[in-house]
Structures are given as C-alpha cells and as structure tokens.
C-alpha cells in the first residue's frame, strides 16, 4: 500500500512538472510578440534581444520535456506554432521596420520571402523530424533569426567598421535572400543532438563556433553575429567538402 501511495505521489509530481516545457514554449512565443511590439516602436535593439532570448527558450523546452518524460505531439505542434511567431514573423517585422521600410515594394518582397521560407522550413521539419537526428535539412529558422537579430545588434559596430556597406539596403536584401534560400534548401546543417555515427569532419563546426566566439570576446567584435556566421559558413564548407569527396573520391 505504501509503495502504491509513493508511486501515485511521484506520478502527480511528474504531471505537475510536465507543465514546465509548455511554459518555456509559451515564453518563446511571448518574446516573439514583444519583439514585434518593440520593432513597431522603433526599439530595434530590444526587439533583436527578444529574438535571441526566444531562441534560448526554444532550445530549452524540448530538452526539459525529455527530462520530465512529457514529450508529446501536442508539444511539438505548439513548439512549431510558437517558432513561426518568434523566428519567422518577428524577424520579418524587425527587418522591415529597421532597414527595409524605405525600400518599399522591394522591402516587402524580401521580408515576405524570408517569412514564407521560414514557414516552409518549419512545415518541412514537422514532416521529416523523425529522420536522421544528426543534422537539419535546410538552415533552421532559429539560426536564421538569430543571425538577423545579431546583425541588428551589431549594426553600430558595422557602421563604424569597413563592413558598413553591408548596412546598405541592397546588400542587406541580398544577404536575407541567401538566408531564405538556405532555409528551404536541402543542405545539411549539424544539429549536435546526437553523436552516434557523426562524421569526423563535422567536428570542424563546433571548433569554428568556439574560435569565432573567443575571437569576438578578445577583439571586441559582435559575439552573436560572429558565432552564428561561423556556424553557417563552417556548415557550408563541410557540405562542400563532403560533396566533392563523394563526387571525385
């Protein structure tokens, strides 16, 4: 009888704790909403930091759900909907309010492309999420939105550096279009969710991210932008190496 009561108590505590992943997921969505409101109020730095914070919560909710054994289809669908707010809609609003409003219809086309590519990426992830956990097919929306947020945060530094031309609306539009195409591509980006059967060359990517972060801290360059850019560039280089090795060796 005592064992039965203990089991019932543990189950009740487990059910109570299972709400924590949902709270983290809703925090992700609320931060996306705050980003939109800040962007519309011309508080672009605050809007960018909200997207970064949303990305952190998005990384936590799934891990916490697995720890508490509360992973479910409902949680996955909810996570996808919240990601659409924080990593598709919010960055599009931030980009348009920050740099593309002066470009008129070109700005609308660029942010519309980013939004649609992000939504397509999320829908595709829901379909193929049961496949190989070692990598993502297409650039994750979390990474793309973190790059956008990092770019906005780094804009004062960029303006004072030799990279100031990137803030020109035409160059920014090209970069955002490239990000959009990467999201809907079939290129592989490592997820670091599983080490089983990982290809050794993938180890170049975390080394590149760590090196970029260390360099940013030492030289005082934008941290988020440096680390996210290192992930994207290193992943593309590894993908190119693997493609050439399969084709010619």
In short:
With 249 residues, this protein is an all-alpha fold. Helix content is 76%, strand content 2%. It is globular.
Properties at a glance:
249 residues, two-stranded antiparallel ribbon, 10 helices, 2 strands, 2% strand
Please, could you describe this protein's structure?
With 249 residues, the protein is mainly α. It has one domain (12-248): Four Helix Bundle (Hemerythrin (Met), subunit A), CATH 1.20.120. Helices cover 76% and strands 2% of the residues. The protein has helices spanning 2-17, 19-40, 44-67, 73-100, 105-128, 141-153, 155-159, 169-183, 204-219, 223-248, and strands at residues 135-137, 188-190. A two-stranded antiparallel ribbon has the order 1-2. Helix 3 (44-67) packs antiparallel against helix 4, helix 4 (73-100) runs parallel beside helix 6 (141-153) and helix 5 (105-128) runs parallel beside helix 8 (169-183). It is globular and about 45 Å long. The model is unreliable at 3-10 (pLDDT under 50).
């Amino acid at each position: 009888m005592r064992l039965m009561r203990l089991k019932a108590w543990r189950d009740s505590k487990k059910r109570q704790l299972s709400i924590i992943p949902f709270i983290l997921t809703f925090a992700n969505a609320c931060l996306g909403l705050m980003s939109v409101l800040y962007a519309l109020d011309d508080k672009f730095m605050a809007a960018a930091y909200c997207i970064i914070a949303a990305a952190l919560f998005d990384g936590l909710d799934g891990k916490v759900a697995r720890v508490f054994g509360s992973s479910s289809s409902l949680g996955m669908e909810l996570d996808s909907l919240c990601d659409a707010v924080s990593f598709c809609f919010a960055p599009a609003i931030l980009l348009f309010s920050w740099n593309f409003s002066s470009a008129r219809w070109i700005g609308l086309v660029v942010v519309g492309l980013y939004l649609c590519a992000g939504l397509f990426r999320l829908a595709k992830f829901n379909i193929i999420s049961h496949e190989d956990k070692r990598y993502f097919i297409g650039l994750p929306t979390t990474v793309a939105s973190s790059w956008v947020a990092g770019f906005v945060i780094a804009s004062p530094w960029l303006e004072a550096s030799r990279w100031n031309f990137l803030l020109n609306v035409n160059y920014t539009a090209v970069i955002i279009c490239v990000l959009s195409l990467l999201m809907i591509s079939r290129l592989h980006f490592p997820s670091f969710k599983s080490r089983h059967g990982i290809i050794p060359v993938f180890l170049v990517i975390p080394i590149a991210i760590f090196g970029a972060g260390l360099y940013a801290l030492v030289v005082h360059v934008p941290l988020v932008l440096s680390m996210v850019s290192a992930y994207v560039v290193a992943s593309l280089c590894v993908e190119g190496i693997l493609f050439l090795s399969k084709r010619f060796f």
